[in-house]
Amino acid sequence: MLPENESRIFELLGNDELAGKVLEIIREDEAERRAVLVRRQSEGLKNARERGVRLGRPPAKRPRKFASIYAMFLEEKISARAAAQMLGVSPGTFKRWATEEKEKQQEPAGV
Predict the structure, then answer these.
(1) Helical segments of 52-90, H only
(2) How much is the pTM?
């Protein structure tokens, strides 16, 4: 509760002991409402995950020119930062894509 509202309650009731008890009841109610909200929110997220709902921002799609830029990166003609700029993504995204591509190439053919 805002301090201005607390001081108004003290002014309106005049009795400090009574105002303190009223504020205590209000704080307990706020805490209870917050706990219910958090519980409902976590239950909703849990249910969504169980249904397989993907939460958050969707992953960025690799541009068509990724393969050629990745090849230049492997040949050390350009840096990861330059490759990311050419693709219009962050260096971290390019490095993640590069790692995924490397792992994909290393997988056995029968898998």
Answers:
(1) 66-74, 80-87
(2) 0.52
- C-alpha 87/C-alpha 79 separation (Å) is 12
What tokens were used for 94? 């390019």
Give alpha helix (H) positions in the chain.
3-13, 16-51, 66-74, 80-87, 91-106
Cβ–Cβ < 8 Å for 36, 53: no
Burial class of 73 by CB neighbour count within 10 A (0 to 12, 13 to 18, 19+)? buried
Residue pLDDT, tens place only, 26-59? 989 999 999 999 999 999 999 999 999 988 888 8
- Amino acid 94 reads F
